Automatic annotation (TrEMBL):
<feature type="transmembrane region" description="Helical">
    <location>
        <begin position="144"/>
        <end position="163"/>
    </location>
</feature>
<feature type="transmembrane region" description="Helical">
    <location>
        <begin position="12"/>
        <end position="33"/>
    </location>
</feature>
<dbReference type="InterPro" id="IPR005467">
    <property type="entry name" value="His_kinase_dom"/>
</dbReference>
<keyword id="KW-1133">Transmembrane helix</keyword>
<keyword id="KW-0472">Membrane</keyword>
<dbReference type="Pfam" id="PF02518">
    <property type="entry name" value="HATPase_c"/>
</dbReference>
<feature type="domain" description="Histidine kinase">
    <location>
        <begin position="224"/>
        <end position="435"/>
    </location>
</feature>
<dbReference type="InterPro" id="IPR036890">
    <property type="entry name" value="HATPase_C_sf"/>
</dbReference>
<dbReference type="InterPro" id="IPR050428">
    <property type="entry name" value="TCS_sensor_his_kinase"/>
</dbReference>
<dbReference type="InterPro" id="IPR003661">
    <property type="entry name" value="HisK_dim/P_dom"/>
</dbReference>
<keyword id="KW-0902">Two-component regulatory system</keyword>
<keyword id="KW-0812">Transmembrane</keyword>
<dbReference type="Pfam" id="PF00512">
    <property type="entry name" value="HisKA"/>
</dbReference>
<dbReference type="GO" id="GO:0000155">
    <property type="term" value="F:phosphorelay sensor kinase activity"/>
</dbReference>
<dbReference type="InterPro" id="IPR036097">
    <property type="entry name" value="HisK_dim/P_sf"/>
</dbReference>
<dbReference type="InterPro" id="IPR003594">
    <property type="entry name" value="HATPase_dom"/>
</dbReference>
<keyword id="KW-0418">Kinase</keyword>
């Protein structure tokens, strides 16, 4: 069957009209045919009542061409008596016919006969050939059927016209969508659309709004990324120029240190940008993942950074904690949280990772001894490239952005709070547990 809604509606309505037309035509034909038969029976009854006795043909009054025979309707009127045989001009009807209607075969032909008693031993019979009756009833019923047969094609054309008119708003919406600016999509109009299409159109408008928001965020992200990359690259260029002007090997080595530090920061920024891009484009299927195993890998990866700052870097586990996701995404989430904690914690501080289950949720806690986050900044720190004012660390401002994006995709949630026992920040990630052997 055609996938076109317009085609399906047209074909469906046409088939329904044809089927209903045939059923209605058959019903009308049958009713008209039956009504014509009843009308003919009524005519026979009226003739039997209205014809005077002097016009009754009998054996005593034979006629060569009886005046009571209608050449068109073939109606025969005659008296039924038992005294003498009937003449050749009259029907040889059985004498024992009772009052009322009968269908009698005379000479190999069926006749519809109405018998009326008029005196003891004497009856009046009015008869008509059933062939003539059927032909007349058929012609009458056919005249009733013809207008309906002519109406069916008109109804099909009208139904197609109605389908086209009803789907016209859909075509108008398609044209409006095609005319949209791809870079700045606007909601489609909903004022002139049918009620059945309105929910679908509102869903499309919500999707367009999300697309517009994502495109705005993407443009802002690209602009911020260009700005963030231009600044370190400019600094690296100046440091390279200073390195060229070094007059001694000792001075060259001294000027090489900030260059190496700038290169490391640039590398970290590029890694974060690539990580965010991978997470935004990720379509990998979810599978059971053990948060404890992921945390161990993160500790192994970042232990050298903690050792450089002489941090008390610990991992507390309560056994396997299974959630649904991807190893790459959860590894990136925990690594970014721990990386931030290590970078912002002062030397000789502490960073602790706790993996536990709480009711029906798996919990990841990263507890540091850094400066923490002011309450008024707790929401802005998730924005791309945002860094706290007067922050001593030159991070990329993307770690928490990547973590929030992963949490939203996996159905988890992130909260940031201050430590209750001392200065520091508690990063907490929660996600629903799954049962896995």
């Amino acid at each position: 069957m055609t996938r076109s809604l317009q085609g399906r509606l047209s074909i469906g309505l046409s088939m329904a009209i044809v089927c209903m037309g045939l059923l209605a035509g058959l019903a009308a034909f049958w009713l008209a045919f039956d009504e014509a038969q009843e009308y003919q029976d009524a005519s026979l009854r009226q003739i039997a009542v209205l014809i005077p006795p002097e016009h009754w043909p009998t054996v005593e009054k034979p006629v060569a061409t009886p005046p009571d025979v209608d050449p068109d309707a073939r109606i025969v009127v005659q008296a039924l008596t038992t005294s003498q045989p009937l003449t050749a001009a009259l029907l040889r009807l059985p004498m024992h016919l009772s009052s009322g209607f009968h269908t009698v075969n005379v000479g190999g032909q069926n006749w519809r006969v109405f018998v009326r008693p008029v005196a003891p031993g004497k009856k009046l019979a009015v008869a008509q050939s059933t062939d003539v009756r059927s032909d007349a009833a058929f012609a009458s019923a056919l005249r009733t059927l013809l207008p309906l047969l002519l109406l069916v094609p008109l109804l099909i054309v009208f139904a197609r016209y109605l389908v086209l008119r009803s789907l016209a708003p859909v075509h108008a919406l398609a044209q409006a969508a095609d005319a949209q600016n791809a870079e700045y999509p606007e909601p489609l109009p909903t004022s002139e659309v049918p009620e059945e299409i309105a929910p679908f159109l509102r869903a499309i408008n919500r999707l367009l709004e999300r697309v517009r928001l994502l495109m705005t965020q993407q443009r802002r992200f690209v602009a911020d990324a260009a700005h963030e990359l231009r600044t370190p690259l400019t600094a690296l260029s100046l440091q390279a120029q200073n390195l060229e002007r070094a007059e001694s090997l000792a001075e060259c080595k001294q000027r090489l240190l900030p260059l190496k530090s700038g290169l490391e920061r640039s590398r970290h920024l590029l890694d974060q940008l690539l990580s965010l891009a991978r997470q935004q484009a990720a379509v990998a299927a979810h599978q059971p993942v053990d948060l404890a195993a992921i945390a161990r890998l993160v500790v192994e990866d970042l232990y050298p950074l903690a050792e450089q700052k002489n941090l008390d870097f610990g991992l507390e586990l309560q056994g396997a904690v299974w959630v649904e996701g991807t190893e790459a995404a959860l590894h990136s989430l925990i690594r970014n949280a721990v990386d931030n904690a290590l970078r912002y914690s002062p030397e000789n501080g502490e960073v602790t990772i706790r993996i536990r289950s709480d009711s029906e949720e798996g919990v990841v806690e990263v507890i540091d001894s850094g400066p923490g986050i002011p309450p008024e900044e707790s929401h802005r720190v998730f924005d791309a490239f945002y860094r706290l004012p007067d922050s001593a660390e030159g991070g990329s401002g993307l770690g928490l952005t990547i973590a929030r994006h992963i949490a939203d995709r996996l159905g988890g949630r992130i909260t940031l709070s201050s430590r209750s026992d001392r200065q520091g920040l508690v990063f907490m990630y929660r996600q629903r547990l799954i049962t896995f052997p």
